[in-house]
Write a structure and sequence with these properties.
Length: 272
């Protein structure tokens, strides 16, 4: 009887281990499909109220990226290069871009490889290349580092910190930043060794230490995707000069209300 129980116990443990190992293998193979969501669409039909030019930005690995470029005054105003978050198309950011018309800035927003109809598949290395290509495109117009403000939203904060470290851009804006993709993934998969499995790590908490330009961090305490403590930690770790816009009720997609827009305006004005 004892032998049967022991065998049953061993068989159960082995079965659980086999199932767990199979889950790990599946997650490892398909992790980028689970991580990136180019087809998710939260666009509700907002109309673009600011004049933009659709541009093509070609990366060093020959992928053409769609960009929207708003040119108000390249000579006298700063230019925001906007790196969007994980889900959806450029149209999903129209409600934000419409507020930029009230600010004294030019802007370029690009769609990542695999997003908004672009070719290619997203990866950490690939998105870094996309971001670099956007900066190069702006510099080919005659802009210098000190003319450019980097704006990262959610996933885009990973690319923003990568490019901002050890560089002399005018400023950096991080909206709902995470500390690292490892810690963000642990929030959703607490029983999975994500540190061992994850290919794209986006270590914002390491890179923020090497950023020495004016910084604005924006985050809401009600964020259910990137916990608020991550944005707060990034802010606390950052070098001066740094500014924060923290709210109690904003979720992951922060509301562009008067207070947030005012915080952006003040930050941008301080860079001129």
């Amino acid at each position: 009887m004892k032998i049967k129980r022991r065998n049953f116990f061993l068989e159960t443990v082995i079965g659980i281990l086999v199932i767990y190992s199979s889950v790990l293998i599946i997650l490892y193979i398909f992790q980028r499909s689970l991580m990136y969501h180019p087809d998710e669409n939260n666009y509700f039909g907002d109309k673009l109220e600011v004049k933009i030019e659709k541009v093509k930005i070609t990366t060093s690995d020959n992928i053409d990226l769609l960009g929207w470029f708003h040119k108000k005054d390249l000579k006298n105003l700063k230019t925001i290069v906007y790196f969007h978050g994980n889900a959806g198309k450029l149209e999903n950011r129209i409600y934000k871009l419409n507020y930029f018309k009230e600010m004294d800035v030019n802007f370029l927003i690009i769609a990542w490889r695999g997003f908004s109809g672009n070719n290619g598949k997203p990866s950490e290395k690939g998105l870094y290349e996309d971001g670099k290509s956007a900066i190069t495109w702006l510099k080919n117009l005659g802009l210098l580092d000190e003319d450019i403000i980097i704006y990262g939203e959610s996933l885009g904060t990973g690319i923003a910190t990568e490019l901002a470290q050890n560089n002399n851009y005018a400023g950096l804006i991080l909206e709902t930043p995470f500390t690292s993709m490892i810690e963000a993934a642990k929030n959703f998969y607490p029983y999975i060794p994500v540190g061992l499995l994850l290919k794209d790590k986006y270590k914002n908490d390491k890179k923020i230490l090497d950023i020495n330009i004016p910084l604005l961090v924006m985050h809401g305490e009600a964020d259910q995707i990137v916990p608020f403590w991550m944005g707060k930690k990034i802010y606390e770790m950052a070098n001066q000069p740094k500014y924060s816009y923290f709210t109690k009720f904003d979720d992951h997609m922060m509301e562009y209300d008067e207070k947030l827009v005012l915080a952006l305006k003040k930050f941008i004005k301080s860079l001129n």
